[in-house]
Amino acid sequence: MHSLYLKAMGIDVWRERSVESWKNQLKIIGLTNSPHNIQAYLLISKLPEALSPQALKLLDAMLAAIQLQRAPESVFDISSLANKPPRPILLLGEKGAQSFLRTLFPIAKLRGQCRYPSTYPGWAVFPSFGLEEILANPKLKRPVWDDLCLFQKAVLTPF
């Protein structure tokens, strides 16, 4: 009923487009703890080369803390995800999380648990705050660490 009301006002159409527009910017990066063995994925809205040096350093430190690293030459477009074997996905950033999960909930409500997107059955997604947001607000480090620990448990648990 609520969606019909919003649609009649033209609001949900605008929101849907705003959330969907981020989907084309999302990139998938393979994560590994050994060469040639992708164990998980990172979904992020910028290529690693486009991140600030501080954000890239933070990303690598976060991954190292859970015994993972970016797999060499493993950056994919979101469209190729359907062809990959299901693995846990660490999803950093509000706009990317909203787009991938097809929701308008803020990242503060999405993080802290595993999500299962209806558009990608079988995939376990772990949303958390974005890198630039973490750098701007050091108080987010603790909840992000909790999210990383939850993600790490999923990586270590066979599907």
Q: Topology, please?
A:
Layout (H helix, E strand, L loop, with lengths): L1 H8 L1 H13 L3 E6 L5 E7 L8 H13 L3 E9 L11 E4 L1 H8 L5 H4 L14 E4 L2 H6 L4 H16 L3
Parallel strand pairs: 2-4, 4-5
Antiparallel strand pairs: 1-2, 1-3
Helix pairs in contact: 2-4
Helix content: 40-55%
Radius of gyration: 16 Å
**Which band does the percent of strand residues land in?**
15-25%
How many structural domains are formed by the residues? Answer: 1
Strand order of the largest sheet: 3-1-2-4-5
Largest sheet: 5 strands, mixed
Structural overview:
The protein is an alpha/beta fold and 159 residues long. The protein has one domain (2-156): Uracil-DNA Glycosylase, subunit E (3-Layer(aba) Sandwich), CATH 3.40.470. The chain contains 7 helices and 5 strands; from the N terminus they run ααββαββααβαα. It has a 5-stranded mixed sheet with strand order 3-1-2-4-5, with helices on both faces. The relative contact order is 0.16. The model is unreliable at 12-20 (pLDDT under 50).
